Amino acid sequence: MISTPSTFDTKFVGIYKSAIIVQKVIPSLALLRQKVCVKYLSSFDLCFSEKKVTSMILSPANKLEQHINFIEDNFLLLIERFNPSRYLKNIHMDDDVENLNANQDASKINEIKCVLIVDFILNLKNDYFLKKHLLSKLQKSKTPTQTLKVLKDINNIIKGCSKKRKEYYEKNYPAWLNELPNSFKYKDVSNTYGFDIVTKFDLRFCPYCNDEPIPTIVGANRNYRAAIDHFYPKARYPFLAVSLFNFIPAGTRCNSGFKSESDMVGYFNPSIHRLKKEALFNFTFSPDNKIQHDTLMVSLSKNDDLLNKNISLFELESVYNNNECKIEIEKIHERILHHRSLGDENLDNILLSEELIRREFNIDLFIPAKHVRWQKYLIDFLNQICNRDYTIKIL
Question: pTM score > 0.70 for this model?
Answer without folding.
Answer: yes
